[in-house]
Specification:
This protein has one domain. Helices cover 72% and strands 0% of the residues.
């Protein structure tokens, strides 16, 4: 469950970075009242922790797919 939540948050962060890169528009800051707003900083931190958690997915053992 944590892996899926982490992946969703990382995707949200990546989409925000896409908006920043293409349009110089920070959706999190816009929704939360600026980059230095407390809520924005919490969201940035949660997305950052999700990114750190996602690093573990690179080294996780995968179950083999069994085809019938």
């Amino acid at each position: 469950m944590m892996d899926r939540i982490s992946l969703i948050l990382v995707i949200i962060g990546a989409l925000n970075w896409l908006l920043i890169g293409l349009f110089q528009f920070d959706a999190v800051a816009w929704l939360c009242g600026g980059q230095t707003a407390t809520l924005s900083r919490i969201i940035y931190s949660v997305v950052g922790v999700a990114g750190l958690w996602s690093i573990s997915l690179l080294f996780k053992e995968r179950e083999p797919i069994v085809e019938d």
